[in-house]
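Ticket #4471: structure export looks truncated?
Reporter: QA, pipeline team
Priority: medium

Steps to reproduce: submit the single chain below to the structure queue and open the exported record.
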Amino acid sequence: MNKKTIILLSALALVIATFFILNKDNTQTLNTTEKDFGFKSTDKIDKIFMTNIQSKEFVLLTKVGKSEWRLNDKYDASTPQVDAMFETMRKIQVKKPVAKDVVDAVVKQMIIRGTKVEFYEAGKLSKVFYVGNNTPDDLGTYFYMENAKEPFICHVPGFNGFLGGNFFTSLEAWRSKVVFKTKEEDIAEIDVDWLENPSASFKLDNKGKEPILMIGAKSLQNNVEVNLNKIKSYLKSWEYLCYEGFPIDLDPHKIDSIAHTKPIVILKLTDKNGRIKTLTVHRKGLKADSYQQVDDEGKQMAFEIENYYAFVDDNKTEIVQIQDFVFGKVMKQVMDFELSKTDTKQ
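Actual output as written to the record:
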């Protein structure tokens, strides 16, 4: 092999090597930890901290049971919201790297305005990354692993949406809306106190073999004075009752005014571990956007019939809105359990 051929082959080898190096740079192949945003299993995750850099809002989710979570060490967290986040984390995939000409802008945007997310497993920090905006085509979301060389566009295959919606930092949005969540067999007592109509009030004792309905100190006989099947069905109604949300048009002064008005009814549930949950229900004044404005006789109503205001436990500074569609099933009166003529014949 002559000298000229050797030089040509060496030059060709250098060109080929250069091509592969450049091609590697163009595809931006990185260490897998820099793009390993997801989890094969979320079972070991026991703490999540999220903060929005711009708004300074933060959320701390701490696991306190098999599937229960606490929010900022103060509230019950929404289990469905946590489950939705975990579903995303198990399915998330890197779609492609961010184009080189916009890398700096994307990273800057995420560090200044994005959401920083920290996952902990068994008490130890596991992953830290930033979540940014959607891509211009809305088919991906910018993610950046802390201290990585560059960001990536991530997605969940088969889902066209904004993944950042799983990493919000609004405290109210993460709070559980569940008021009552007690199964029939775990209920000890239920007190329903109708302040506007005391004769409709009752107590339900569920500590014995059969539930007993009481008016004051008087116990009513099952299937003689009251329908036992109706009582048992009623007990099942307390397993999952949620409020609708927080009224955004009420300031602290208006909330205090409502708290000082006479409630319609007070619902109190005591479970067999002695824990008590109370809901104090007030009428909601009619508004311009209320669904029903007049009664069956065409007269203008003063209050809504499909929604109510309510206070949970002793907290009189925070008001929630509840729906009759949800809570109407437990806002019963003693006459609702009476035997009908059909029951008597049977």
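Status: closed, not a bug. The export was complete when the record was re-opened. Leaving a note from the reviewer for reference: The longest helix spans residues 3-27.
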